[in-house]
Structures are given as structure tokens and as C-alpha cells.
Amino acid sequence: MRHSTFALISFRAISTSWVAIGNATIEVSAAARAARAATEDSPADAAAFVAYAADADAVVNAADAVDYAATDAYYAAAEDVIDADDAAADDAADDAHAAVWRAISVDATALETGQSAVALAVSPLWPSDVPQWADSPWQRMKNKLLTDPEEQWWVWTEWYEARLKGEPFNPDLELARVLIPDETWKQGPKVVNAEIARLIKQHKPPLPPLPVIPEERPAPVHFIFTDKLHRAPPPAPMARDQGAAESAWRGLRALVDDLVGHTGSNHPVPGLKRYSDALGETFAQLDLICCGVLGDALKRYGDLAGQELLPAQAADLLALMAHHGLFMSQFPQWSAYLAGVKEPFGSKEAVTKAVNDAVQALEVIKRDYSHLIAKDALGPLDDLGAAALEGGGEEEQRAFLRSERSALRAYAENALEAIAKGHYKGLEKVGEKGTVALIAGVGTSLVALATGIPSEFGWLKAIVDYVLLFLS
Question: I need a labelling partner for 398 at 20 to 30 A (CA). Which of 184, 294, 349, 416 fits?
Fold first, then answer.
């Protein structure tokens, strides 16, 4: 408790003095006096320094600032090597003292050459990288503060690191931060930091309108996102003559089983297991469009069957493929799918590259975001991707790309929904683990898809740009 209370007093003092440089108003002066008064209960060895930092008038006293900064740096460095011998401690403190003087010398030169105090205050604190002797204690302090998520110390750790880097800031937000009533400050970190979090959200600049996600297009597999990416239930197979289609399915199922029995595991037919899974163990389990796509991939292998299979096996495969074509022709759903993907997506080279980009995106998702893809979604994507890579036929490539488009569309919908709900903070969860992070993580592949085949994936560029804007 003592640690967090002192941290709040310190952050209040630093932020108040920083804002006071460009806001010499009665309200800010009153806030500075209140911040200084708050140091009365702080630890005795730190009270003087914090009180000084809280004094808005002190920020223009360069000589005193040098003395306080150098002295504080000495003690910080000495504490960091407390277990070392005296000589090492003295050397570390001397290095710290010299580094502080160098940084202040750069600032003094800038002031002498006409740079304003306000411009100097918003520049990076250190002229080069933050020294290790200063960064290490800060990292320890930050990590300790962030162990209590209820106190929301991110409102200060992010603020301080932004000041270290000289990042742009919202002056209205910074003024509102230091003008929080003294009564609120006295209630401690949990109350104050919650109020600052509210102010951050209130002052957050509005994002542009959400980009438009296009409608679904015909694909072998469609996807939805709930807790993770799931395959959308395939529509029930509806044939022109349902009874005849079910009888034909049984014959097709028998041909597949015979072929599996004849070839065994020593000479498996590439893609046969995937086809068998799509065919299902019952007619009701038939995954119609996926079965049609994988069956067409088998047809291409069937053209070479005489060269790679025994005569009996080749005959079984050719019979299966002939029956497959007749079976699929009974379903208007299959005809509609073919009509939806008959137009080329682009040049042969562009489509082949897009397949590789889509596979790469899927591999990153499997590796880094496995918690966001269910097995029922991963299986079909892997199967269709393998068919597109193995056969390389235009139909298989388009089938895989359309399916991946649906998966990416589901991810994008969820990411934009998370952003639209106002998850400006809690970003540790939304930005590091959710679909927002996923879109950013595979952003390079998504932009490549958008550039390579804009007719199918062009919309992804706006999604990636929007997510990156949000995360920034």
C-alpha cells in the first residue's frame, strides 16, 4: 500500500509540473499546490524531491533542476548496485551523474538557441536511449504496479513511457488529469486511476467509420466466430429427387470403401480420405460442396491412375469418379456453387501466389492464435489448402481461397465488433489475445492477398489499416 501510494503521489507531482509548463493558469497552480501538499505523508527520504517536482515554479529553475536530477540519479544508481563493492557503486553513480548532466546540457543548449520550454518539455526525455541504470528500476516498478489490475496502473505507466519517448499527446486530456479534484486524489490509486481511465476514454479521438465487410460468396465451407472460429453448419443436401440421391450416395459410399480396402495404407490414393470424410458416414452427414470440390481433385488424379495404380485399383477409382459426377449433378446447390466460382480470380500466377499467402496466414493463425480456431474449422481449411497445393487446379485453388475468405471475414467481423464496443482499454486482453491481435499478426499476408486478388480480398486492406490505427 505504501509503495502504490507513493507511486501515485510521484506521478501526480510529475504530471502536474509537466502540464504547468504550458498552462500557467490559476487552476493548474492550485493543482500544483495540492500535489505538493500531498507529499507531507510520503516517505521522508523522498518527500523533498517529490515536493520539489510538484512545484510548478521549479520547472523553470535550471540550476536547481540539474542539482536535484543529478542527486536523484546518484542515489538511483547506488541503490541498483547495493550489493556490489563501494568502488563499483561509486562508478555506477558517477556514470549516472554524467549521463544526467549530458542530457541536461542538450536541453540547455536547445533553450539557448531559442527552443521554447514547452517544445522542450514534449521532446524525448533522453537525447538517446534510456540508460540502463534508469530503465531497470523503472521496469521493476512498472511490473510491480501492473500486478494489481484492479488499480489500473496502465494509466500512468503508459503515460510515463509516452513522455520518455516524446510521443504526441492530447492537451485537453493532460489538463483534465491534473485537475482531478483533490478529494478524489485522497481516495487512493484505485479511485483516481479509474477516473483517469474514464477521462482517457472520454478524450479518445473518435475512430473513422468502421470499414465495410462484404457479403459471403459461394464457398465449399463457411465460418462463424463465437468463442473462436467455427465451421458454419453446412446446408442439408437437397436433391431434385431425394430418394434417388440417397440411393446414389449409398453406392458412392460403397465404392469409396472398396477403393480404400483395395489400396490400403501402402498405396493410398491422394485426397481419398478427405473425400471420404466429406462424403460422410450417412447421407445426412454429406458435406455437399466440400465433397464436390474434393471429388473434382480426385478426378485429376484419376487421369493418371493407370500409371500409378494397379489395374483393379485404377478401375475402382475411375468408376468412383464417374459415379461422383452423376451424383453431384443431382444437386442444384452444387450447380449454384459452380456458377459462383466459374470466373477466374486473376492470372494463374496471381492465384498461385494468393494460395501461398493464404496458407501462410493460416500457418501463423495455427501457430500464434490456436486458441482462436476450433478443430471443426481447422480441418476443412487444412484439407482444402492441401488440395489446392497438391493438385494446383484452378477449381481447387478457388475453392480454398473462397473458404479462407469466409474465415477471414468471420475474424474481421469479430475484430470490428470488439473495437466498436469501445474497448479502448482492457486492450491487454483485446489487443494481445483476441481477433484484433490476430488481424494485426497476419496483416502482412492479408495485405498481400488484398493486393494480389483485389476482387476477392481487396476489402482486407481497409480492415488491416483500421485495426492498426486502433492499436496505435
Answer: 416
